[in-house]
Amino acid sequence: MDAADEKAARPAYSLWQMVQYFTKLGTIGFGGPVALVGYMQRDLVEERKWISENDYKEGLTLAQLMPGPLAAQLAIYLGYVHYGITGATVAGVAFVLPSFIMVVALGAAYVAYGGLTWMQAVFYGVGACVIGIIALSAYKLTTKTIGKDKLLWAIYIVAAAVTIVTESEIVWIFLISGLLVWLVRAPPKHWLPRGGSTPLVGLLPLGDHLPVACSLGVTADWAVLAQIGIFFAEAGAFVFGSGLAIVPFLYGGVVNEYHWLSERQFVDAVAVAMITPGPVVITVGFIGYLVAGFSGAVVAALATFLPCYLFTIIPAPYFRKHGKKPAIVAFGTIAGAVVVLGKRSITDIPTIVIMAVTLLLLWKVKKIPEPAIVALAAVAGLIVYPLIKG
C-alpha cells in the first residue's frame, strides 16, 4: 500500500471524537430506536462522513439480524468499523452510560418519593402519553418494515392474536418466526445466516394502581443479584428488534415470575425509559435499582447489554465479508399489545384525551420533541389526577 492509499484508508476521525459523539447522543438523543439510528446516519454518514454508506447499512443489517437493542448494537458496530474491538467497546459504553446514570438517579427519587401523590399524578399523565408514543411507533415500524410481504403479514397477525389472548410475550414466537423466515427466504449455506430473522415486538399489560416503590433495594443479597443477572442476560440474548421488544419479556419475569415489581411500578419503569435519552432498553437499570439498589441496576444493565455486545463484535468481521441484506424485520405482537394497553391503562376520559393529544402532536407537529410532549403530559397529570382521585 503506497502513501496515498494508506492516507485514504485512515479514518477521518479519532477514537476520542467517536467517544465524544456517542456520549452526546446518549445524553440528548431522544425519540427511540428509529430516531437514534436516523441520527447516526445523518451525523456520521451524511454530515461528518466518518462512516461510509455501505458500512452503515451493514451495521444496521447486523443489528436487525441479531438479538438485542437496535440502536445500541448499531453504535457498537460503527465503533468497530475503524477501531475494532476497542472502538466497539468505548462507543457502546459512551452511548449507554449517560442514560444509565439518569435512570439510576430517577430510580433513587422514585424509591424515596414514589408513594407521594404528586409522583402518582406525574405518572398518571406520562403513562397515557407513553401509550400514544408507543402506538405511533408501532404503526410506523409496521408500515415501514412489512409492506406487502404476505409471509410477514401472516406472522404479524398470529403474533398479534397471541399477544391479545395471553396478554404477554412468548419467546417461542420470536424463535419460531425467525427460523421460519430464515428457512423460507434464505436457507443457510454457512454458519452465519444470510436470511433474516423476524423480530416481533410486544409490549406490556399495564397495571391500575401505584403502590409504594419496592423496598428490596436496601436488602439486596448475592442470590438476588444472581437471579437478576441470569434473567436479564436471557432478556438481552433472546429478544430481537427495537428496544421496545424487551418490554414484554421483562414484564413476564419481573412482574409475573419473580414478583419483583407490581404492574404499576413496571409501567412507571417503561415511562422512565421513554422520558430519558439513549436506548429504551436502559429501563433495565431502573428496574434493577428498584429490585436491588445500585448494585441491582449495574448487574441488570451489564447482563442485558453484554449479549448484544458479543452478538455484534463476534460476527462483525465475518459479516463484513459475507453478510447480505436480511429479510425485513416484522413487528407483530406490538399491534396486539396496543389493544392490551388500551384495556389496562386508558380507563377514563382524561387518559383518552392525553393519549389522543399525544398522537395528534406527534403526527401533525413533527418539530415538537417527544420529551416536551411527555413533560406536558406530566403537567396535565399533576392538574387532573387530584381532581379525578380526590
List keywords for this structure.
disordered N terminus; single chain; globular; 390 residues; 16 helices; mainly alpha
Task: Describe this structure in a few short sentences.
The protein is an all-alpha fold and 390 residues long. The chain is built from 16 helices and no strands.
Largest sheet: none
* Helix proportion range: over 70%
Rounded to the nearest angstrom, the radius of gyration is 21 Å
Unreliable runs: 1-8, 190-220, 324-333
Provide a count of the helices: 16
Class inferred from helices and paired strands: mainly alpha
List the helices and strands and how they pair.
Layout: H1 3-9, H2 15-28, H3 32-47, H4 53-65, H5 70-113, H6 117-145, H7 150-166, H8 171-185, H9 222-238, H10 246-257, H11 263-275, H12 283-313, H13 316-322, H14 333-344, H15 349-364, H16 370-389
What does this structure look like?
By secondary structure, this protein is an all-alpha fold. It has 16 helices and no strands. The termini are far apart. The N terminus is likely disordered.
